[in-house]
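Subject: Protein record for review, amino acid sequence with backbone structure tokens
Concerning: The relation between a protein's sequence and the shape of its backbone.
How to read it: Take the token row as a discrete description of the fold.
Enclosed: The protein record, placed directly beneath this head.
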Amino acid sequence: MDSTQIRAMADDIRSGNRRALARAITLVESTRQDHREQASALLEMITPDTGNSIRLGITGVPGVGKSSFIEVFGNHVIDQGSRVAVLAIDPSSSISGGSILGDKTRMENLTRRREAFIRPSPAGTTLGGVARRTRETLLLCEAAGYDLIIVETVGVGQSETMVSEMTDMFLLLLLPGGGDELQGMKRGITELADLLLVNKADGDAKKIAQNTVLDYRSATHYLPRKHKSWAPRVEACSTAEDRGILEVWEIVQEFAAALKDSGEWEQRRARQALDWMWRETAESLLVDLKRHPAIAEALPQIQAAVQRGDKSPTVAALDIVKLYRQYNSTADHSNGSTDL
């Protein structure tokens, strides 16, 4: 793909072309070097058109009803005049690496809305319940004009810090029953949440859900404040009865207004951008390190020593870095470079 084609793709994305957006996401998710270069050029073009959405992270244990909640919630947001993009991160098959849950098939009504865009992506080996290129995908959706971008995480007990760091607001869905479902998840996930929703507050579980809300409201008073201008909210809702869902959108808008008025919105976005930069730098350097000729030659022997227990991982890591530095230092001297 040449620069003219990339520019045309950027224009199509800005015009709201969903097919162009899907192709662009496939491009940024590719690991091919030429595709990475094309994706970088595309992201550079669309960056001025990003930053105008609300980024909402949603997590919860399997069975809490994340997909059902997102479908009902997304339809309400669209009915209010906004466009919604859903980045649904599914667990990955250990055999194919592909998505195994198929969130798109569980959001049939939302999928049919012209104002919605749903993209399932396999989590692969990335920790934090997000896919490798979720951040880039998020920017592409913003450039396409989506007002609300929902990142639905795997929610299987992994650290969810990454999704909190790439979104504006973090929503934790809970089951009625006093929080027993969080036993397999780190306590810190509750501290990350800006809004805790006890879902399935209907039928025989309605009273239990209300008690759960009261328990969490009491507990959140003892947690450190994540934002100066916002205290975590705890509410109940029912996807089955479509009750309390529209109010969630109102709370999300209240959250955005509070952080923007206090200046925390811009500060948080700036910190996230820097964090993203350093993560990309570290990952790019790691790829470069593994491809380095001196490392590639020595790596099999170093790895074998670690596997046998002859060398500790810490010492092996230091050896790799030392080898990398020595090789580069020798190369600089041979080229006559005097740069430090």
